[in-house]
Give the backbone structure.
Amino acid sequence: MSYRNANYCAFYVDEPFSESNLRANATPDFCYYNTLRAWKGEDSSFPFIDAHNKTYQVRDGSDWEGTLKPRLHQRLNESKNIILFLSSHTKSSRALREEIGYGVGQLELPVIVVYPEYESTKEIEDNFSDIEKLWENIPTFCTYKTKVPVAHIPMKKDVLEKALSDNGFTVQSPYEAKDYKID
């Protein structure tokens, strides 16, 4: 078994996807992921280890069954949790269904859900019925989220740092399977 020290980021992008494509950089959920990578670039002590950097990059016309899906599985197998960017722009996609189905449904990786459109944990709490509606954008998440601990946080560097530093949101020593808030 692989050493599980990475954080797997799951986010919606139009398919087919190519990181070098300008259209990808206009996809809000991909931009949120890039913000996370920038935080790590600016601060090497930020506790984010990008699982996407642990394997060769995939390219726009790669075969799903032969290349893309095995690469996702390899990255998830080396991860201790999943960071899911969930916004009003997020839609279900083949990649997100596979990432959540395999990562949460089979590997039982804890999930840190980042809601970029909310400013604070209090705002998330106050609007939890709207948050639940966002989950419906990814039915696979609704199916499997009760199997693992799930942190619900705004897109704030200090809050994400707390979540990433909390061993309860790792597969090695997970909290009880339920919803959590982090201030």
DSSP finds eight helices and five strands in the chain. The chain has a mean pLDDT of 89. The two ends are 34 Å apart (CA to CA).
